[in-house]
Amino acid sequence: MSTAETRAKSGVDLGAVRAKYREERDKRLRPDGNEQYLELKGQLSHYAEDPYTPRVERAPKTDHVSFAFIGGGFAGLVTGARLKEAGIDDVRIVEKGGDVGGTWYWNRYPGAQCDTASMVYMPLLEETGHMPSEKYAHAPEILAQCQRIAKQYGLYDNALLQTEVTELEWDDAHKRWIVRTNRGDAFTADYIGIGTGPLHVAKLPGIPGIDLFKGHSFHTSRWDYAYTGGDPSGAPMDKLKDKRVGIIGTGATSVQCVPHLARAAKELYVFQRTPSSVDVRANAPIDPDWFASIAEPGWQQRWLENFTLNQTAGPGAAEDLVQDGWTDLSRRIRARVFDIPPEERTIERILSAWEESDYEKMEEIRRRAETIVKDGETADKLKAWYRQLCKRPCFHDSYLQAFNNPSTRLIDTDGKGVERITEKGVVVAGREYELDCLIFASGFEVGTSWKRRWGFDVVGRDGVALSDHWADGMRSLHGIHTYGFPNMFIVGPTQGANLISNVPHNLTDSARTIATIMKHARDQGAKEVEVTKEAEEAWVSLLLSGPGMMLASPDCTPGYYNNEGQDPGPAARFFVGYPAGAVAYFRYIDDWRNKGDFEGLAFR
Ligand code: NDP
Fold this sequence. Notes:
single chain, alpha/beta, FAD/NAD(P)-binding domain, 2 domains, 7-stranded mixed beta sheet, 5-stranded parallel beta sheet, globular, binds NADPH dihydro-nicotinamide-adenine-dinucleotide phosphate
């Protein structure tokens, strides 16, 4: 059946749906875009303090290491592990948190769990011999996996925790980097790696009066269990039983912690600006017998490749190992597209098939809200009116149910956001809700400058700052190497595979690339590894020849996926991946590594 026939049969007026989506988006568009958010600085700096690890004093370091890695999250851990395997013994992780783990160090809010399946999300499962306990593991298990990697590969030995890098400077005379930190360190390293994570700078909403509130308040990435009681593994937050709690924000974080707050608080008020789409989670324990049956050598790489293949729109993904909301989403779109006879498969037809599949899914999710939430008005307000990939799709089996709890109330702001915060609580539509505790589930900086998010600049050869080299946008080979910055490796998704549905896959693959290069440099006796100017230019041109990428279109409801609906400026067009997609990138880079001539790099 053609897509037009399907549409006629189902009687859907997609024009009306588009108009509804546009109306909801227009309500939320605001000219200040990212500027509406506040940094955790000055009067608000206490929101950034680490509630998990007391500060430990230490003497500044002025020694030398072979490899310093900035960031102790997944990027630093997997790169450190691969470097150790390649025989580089003195790897030093520099990390602002009190332990390794990155996101999973900071995000200990109740209910936190991965929402990409553990089998592909948790790194180095095969190497560490860990079997995930659940299809979507909870935060303590993921943090423990980070600690396990650090222990197994000896990455704690040399680490500098509770330490923030303030500057990285290339010393050309000695062919090494000088690493300066907020602890007074000024040590040197032959090589540096940078993996600070895409979402690590917490932000607050710029709501008038935010500094006036006299009750207790914190950001979800700094959960105050001393105040709430309970713990990250799910012990009840018994200290909230006589407390009126408010939470601002209804994104992926809020979706996971609201059910726990609903159970614990005397009263819970969920302040909503835009509802998330919340589909079925279907989490389940992993059966050890089943795990033993699939865990043959190379299993995790096979699963990673299979998940990525299922996430792309091309044919050939016959088997779906992970089988979850992400692969279902792609499968539906693919099925619709491949329904179109090949000779009629124009871009217009493909986009229209995608839109119909999206509408179908979003209707299913809206109906889910109606079926689960008993109060009709609340159910209506929990319905998301945008295309599924406009915002991070959420999956949960007790979020919507939480609104059936008589002490939980949804305070919908009709897209306007909270009006004011007072000494006593939160004001919406002129009504004040008095609270004892106010929790900000307001997310992390994404659209701000990389330098602000990294927290430091890098000074390369001839005193050139990375912020100058990248003044018009990021430039690299494979997202890893930058001309003028020898012996420096960046580990992140951008300008490589750009696989957003499973960020760790990008990181583990880059770690393999870096370790292979380092081994080659050692074998050659090279002191310097640098991308050539021509190779960097050619890679950037190749990236720009592709379709470009913004996670969500400007027509979407505002959020960090589309730079809050504002023009992100010309530099944003460089935040792209390999034009042929993630699967093709992983194949390409694997060939590049195996060929052994490391085309585009100069070893000196
Ligand atoms: P988000 O940025 O997704 O959500 C912030 C929330 O705050 C939004 O609901 C936003 O509303 C709301 N908000 C902002 N300003 C106001 C205001 N003035 N009044 C009322 N509400 C306001 O942050 P999250 O921490 O939820 O998630 C960030 C990302 O972290 C996720 O998208 C995901 O990538 C990742 N994450 C991953 C998880 C996992 O893998 N397990 C779990 C949790 C998070 P609006 O939508 O209108 O802007």
